[in-house]
Amino acid sequence: MADKNFGYIIKNHLKSNKHTYIGLFLFYIIGVILGAFAVNDLDFQQKDDMTKYLNGFLKILNSDEINRISLFKISLSDNFKLLVLFWGLGFTVIGIPVYYLIIGMRGFTTGFSSGVIMGVLGTKGIFISAFCFLPKEIIVIPCLIALGVNGIKLSRGILKSWLKKSIKDENGVMQKIGPYSFVTVFFSIFLFLATIFETYISSGTLFFLNS
């Protein structure tokens, strides 16, 4: 019975927020496309610098000089800051467009990074993108989109209460803060798993593919 109720809640949530989900996903895809095309706009000197930087990183990786614990701490710190940012934006009206901007920028970074790697390493770069970066993105992007939808929903509720200036609506928003924060904590678990994957599995696979 509980499983049916949970399934109904998820189904109803997706149905009620499908346009927001689609919008955020489209911003991500557009970002990926723009990032991939941006690689083609680099001049010869910029491409040469990118090639030297990437080859230098791969050389360090092959020499096993990377401290994975430090890498884990850096990655965890970055994901935690992003998580706090997504949580905090939900309490602001201006957070609504910012969610779309952040998701789009994330897509741009993904497209640009993958484009550079494939451009420099060719076929090996395709394998590196597919086996090292794509699995992490499959975990992170749905989480960020879900957190974005969660935040946008709260922001709209706050905006609605401001426009109506209704005490009842303001109380309703206050009651949503608990569930809103719970959703943030829930998806933080997946972001933590993505951090572990990025630090140990992705870097290990990258070492194997480049050896």
UniProtKB/TrEMBL annotation:
Pfam families assigned to the protein according to its UniProt record, in alphabetical order: SpoIIM (PF01944)
InterPro entries for the chain: SpoIIM (IPR014196), SpoIIM-like (IPR002798)
Top-rank taxon, per record: Bacteria
Signal sequence segment: none
Keywords linked to the UniProt accession: Membrane, Transmembrane, Transmembrane helix
Coiled coil location: none
Stated name of the protein: Stage II sporulation protein M
